[in-house]
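Name: Amino acid transporter transmembrane domain-containing protein
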Amino acid sequence: MESYNAETMESQNKVQPSQQPGKGTTFFRTCFNGLNALSDPLIKTYPDIGQLAFGSKGRVMISTFMYLELYLVAVEFLILEGDNLHKLFPNAYLHIGGHTIGGKQAFVLLTALMILPTTWLRSLGLLAYVSAGGVLASIVLVCSVFWAGAVDGVGFHERGMLWKWSGLPTAVSLFTVCYGGHAVFPTLCTSMKDRSQFPKVLLVCFVLSTISYASMAVLGYLMFGENLMSQVTLNLPTRNISSKIAIYTTLINPITKYAIIVSPIATAVEDSYPFRNSRALSILIRSVLVISTAVVALSVPFFGCVMAFIGAFLSTSVSMLFPCLCYLKINKAARSFGPELMLITIIMVMGSLVAVVGTYSSLKEIVKHIQPQ
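Structure predicted for Amino acid transporter transmembrane domain-containing protein:
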């Protein structure tokens, strides 16, 4: 989930990128940021665009969707950790206050406890290097899954139905969340020494991301067919070295990225209090955030369904609907009838359909899983 690496959004209202010659991130570092995340000089963040287009209401609306998206991604990290650790250690359990907690729930709690100290750090520098590590981990994951199929005996013999209309809303929602890095694009652009290179950055980000996602999709289908689970690592046999590498690589990413994901949310909350420089208050706020995401992860431990909801309701709004609405509001010329307006209308209609149908289907699946059988 590299698209959600969001330290670049830390302290949304305080980002002050350098405009001096020779300063700022390079083209390739920004590519790494875009892969981990993928004008008016006053626009430095996505909420700034909402402010320019619709005033304070626009800023609040976009900020709310962005922070909610980041919050649920943090929840997804805990669910993912719980699923994969339970895959590796199916018989593990915890004893807390006379109660025995086993399975995925125990690992969700352990993961939350382990990452808690990392969220207390307010300075999360060297983002490009962290992002590069995330890109490298993605490459290792794809290669290890391929090795499991080609060399370690899993094979590429499964097939099954290639197209299911009933699964289309979920598939499109998941597809959308994979490209939900638009929230950080304005900040990435302003961080560059040469902003004219930013279109090339986007091209590199989207092409490499598409290759990575498509490779994993094809490998998963050929290896496990209709039996493919919400995470391909849950299908892999744990006895193989390649499978263990894939699972451990999947485990490392959320642990290193969780603090980066929740940092913008914590900063926004901290800045709303008069004692914003209080270290104790900062630790309390960030601890409450971790605890709350753990509670949600324990309550709705369904990785695929939650991810589909994020894609349909939040990523579609942030990546498709809000950009079009803000663009039409800011650029009056775009409202004139022509190819540009037609294209924007098509995008908005498609985005609205995905948002409505995808949100309904994902919530329906979540409710179905929560209700007792």
